[in-house]
Design goal:
The chain is α/β, with parallel strands linked by helices and about 550 residues long. Among the domains are: about 80 residues, Arginyl tRNA synthetase N-terminal domain (Gyrase A, domain 2, 2-Layer Sandwich), CATH 3.30.1360.70; about 80 residues, no CATH class; about 120 residues, Isoleucyl-tRNA Synthetase, Domain 1. Helix content is about 50%, strand content about 15%. The chain has 20 helices and 15 strands. The strands form four sheets. It has a five-stranded parallel beta sheet. The chain has a four-stranded antiparallel beta sheet with strand order 1-2-4-3. The chain has a three-stranded antiparallel beta sheet with strand order 8-9-10. The relative contact order is 0.11. The model has no long low-confidence stretch (mean pLDDT about 90). The structure holds one RNA strand of 77 nucleotides.
Length: about 550
RNA sequence: GCUCCCGUAGCUCAACCGGAUAGAGCAACAGUCUUCUAAACUGUAGGUUACAGGUUCGAGUCCUGUCGGGAGUACCA
């Protein structure tokens, strides 16, 4: 309907000799303002030097619209043109949904294109925390949206298993190991105090009982890393998340990619040496200060590998590159992107999604988190307490740019007034009605007479239902996926209202069948939407 | 100091490229189950969209400034 109107309106504007800018259509909030509305007359007021209402009339007088699609239109002050869709059109759309079934809501905007989503990327120093949860769900849901838009998607996890942090980790494991062996050893200063290292030490002791203080640290480091990665991957699996690629920063060194980037920047005259360190001349590119690429110790900062990594992303041929970062990484990407641009890559392909922090609350108290001190609630613990469906939904229901308060007490307590259950209940309710219909011998009929559907609540439900593909596209355009849970909530509300007002199964068999047909379509949209969110759609509750 | 994010009902948050009377949930109050699942529905109340200017037919949305919260501003990542 939208594209139909767009097309005809554009043609008409051309006839009139007015600038054919992209006409904007929106679904009015109020049903009385039609099913689709455009503000084109107001937008043209200045250029055409006429009153918006006059323009609207001029446009509409010469516009011939198919009555099977558009029932009627109205011109309303200050200059809106509102269109009302015809019943035939609605019926036709409903049939389409049922035919598309598992494909309802998909679009082809990314067909033939490759996308990469990098998310989580936590270094293997400890289990994933509640803080990582937000990024996990955000990244995975964005990836789902891309898949529903036709992209071929690679989910990627970037990690670093070298450096000071990992050394500390190895030392911490060694201390735990030796303590288990009866040689009580203190954890190093700033060591990792988490209980998980004790578990990993026990495993190590079973497998290799002969290690000692003399053993190379790398043995402990390697074992700690493997053990922790197992924990992380298990957690991700519980969340329903599978990464296709785990990219080790170290390979960038081994294959000389780091040097290549440095050389390339040198050739562009953007590198200089000062105080024994190697600097990136970012001031030359419009930044307020220069940045260190290689420390005086000879060790590169995160910046250089990040540049090399992103250069690899481009070379691997991705058409769309999405980085999901926490707010603490805010300053790390502008100069990385600047370097890539200098190297000749099209950085408009890179989209950085920054999410604000999660504040973990216990009632009114803020829970402070630190991986090293093991003062945190792990994602696993959260999953144990409230389940995957609730965790995924809670993390995604708010915009990434908003700070998220995650109240543990509330999440645990929430079993009844929880929005997730509200959605799932809508789905289960429909399933239940279908079971009941079968009992009563009323069968679902593909050829049901849909002209029987016409009450206000019914039309509201159908309109909500038809918006689903638009919501998916909007999530894609904006990379703001919280629109989806919000939409599904509204769809569930429309369903519940319809249910309260109108009995589906009645003596009137044709009407029952028409309503069953509608519910079938609603069930499809709910199920597909929940699938994108990674939330289950139960048949009964 | 500078950069980025945020500020909307008592609380948690929506509001598509600037559109029509700023919407939900929770909490409060009042109702609705002999009938397909009441994990639901209806109604009442709750707002100077932090503040002050500006841009225009129209601003929660864009611009400038102020205040408040968060993140960054390292030879940490």
């Amino acid at each position: 309907m939208k594209s139909y109107l767009e097309q005809h309106l554009k043609t008409r504007l051309t006839e009139l000799g007015w600038p054919v800018e992209e006409p904007q259509f929106s679904r009015p909030k109020k049903a009385e303002n039609g099913d689709w509305s455009t503000n084109i007359a107001m937008a043209l007021a200045r250029v055409a030097r006429q009153a918006p209402l006059q323009i609207a009339h001029t446009i509409m007088e010469g516009l011939i619209l198919d009555p099977e699609i558009v029932d009627r239109y109205e011109i309303v002050a200050p200059g809106f043109i509102n269109f009302f869709q015809s019943p035939d059109y609605l019926a036709h759309q409903l049939r389409k949904i049922v035919t598309q079934d598992f494909h309802y809501g998909r679009n082809k905007s990314g067909a033939g294109q490759k996308a990469q989503v990098e998310f989580v990327s936590a270094n293997p120093t400890g289990p994933l925390t509640v803080g990582h949860g937000r990024q996990t769900v955000l990244g995975d849901t964005i990836a789902n949206i891309l898949e529903w838009s036709g992209y071929e998607v690679v989910r990627e996890y970037y990690f670093n298993n070298a450096g000071r942090q990992m050394r500390k980790l190895g030392e911490s494991l060694r201390a735990r190991y030796l303590t288990l062996k009866g040689q009580s050893t203190a954890l190093p200063e700033d060591g990792y105090q988490g209980e998980y290292l004790v578990e990993i030490a026990k495993e190590l002791l079973e497998q290799q009982p002969d290690l000692s203080v003399e053993t190379e640290l790398s043995v402990f480091k390697t074992h700690a890393e493997a053990g922790i990665f197992q924990i992380i991957k298990d957690t991700l699996a519980r969340m329903g998340v599978t990464h296709d690629v785990f990219y080790n920063e170290n390979t960038l060194y081994e294959t000389g990619k780091i040097e290549e980037v440095l050389d390339e920047l040198r050739r562009k005259n953007l590198v200089f040496t000062k105080d024994g360190a190697t600097w990136f001349k970012t001031t030359e590119l419009g930044f307020d200060q220069d940045r260190v690429l290689v420390k005086s110790t000879g060790e590169p900062t995160y910046r250089l590998p990040d540049m090399a990594y992103h250069r690899e992303k481009f070379r691997r041929g991705f058409d769309l590159i999405i980085d999901v970062f926490g707010a603490d990484h805010q300053d790390t990407y502008p100069d990385v992107l600047a370097a890539l641009k200098v190297m000749g890559f099209d950085t408009s392909k890179v989209h950085v999604v920054i999410h604000q922090f999660v504040t973990l609350m216990r009632g009114d108290e803020v829970v402070k988190m630190s991986t090293r001190k093991a003062e945190f609630v792990t994602l696993d613990e959260l999953l144990d307490e409230v389940g995957v469906d609730v965790v995924r939904y809670f993390y995604i229901m708010r915009g990434a740019g908003s700070h998220l308060n995650f109240d543990l007490d509330l999440a645990k307590r929430q079993t009844e007034e929880n929005p997730v259950f509200y959605l799932q209940y809508a789905h289960a309710r429909i399933a239940s009605i279908f079971r009941k219909a079968e009992e009563r011998g009323i069968t679902y009929d593909v050829h049901a007479d849909l002209t029987r559907l016409g009450e206000a609540e019914t039309l509201a439900l159908i309109n909500e239902l038809l918006a689903f593909p638009e919501v998916v596209e909007r999530c894609l355009r904006s990379l703001e996926v919280h629109h989806l849970p919000n939409y599904l909530y509204a769809l569930a509300t429309a369903l519940h209202k319809f249910y309260t007002e109108h009995r589906v199964i009645s003596e009137d068999v044709p009407l029952s069948q028409a309503r069953l047909f509608l519910l079938k379509a609603v069930k499809i949209a709910l199920r597909n939407g929940l699938q994108i969110l990674g939330v289950t759609a139960p048949e009964r509750m």
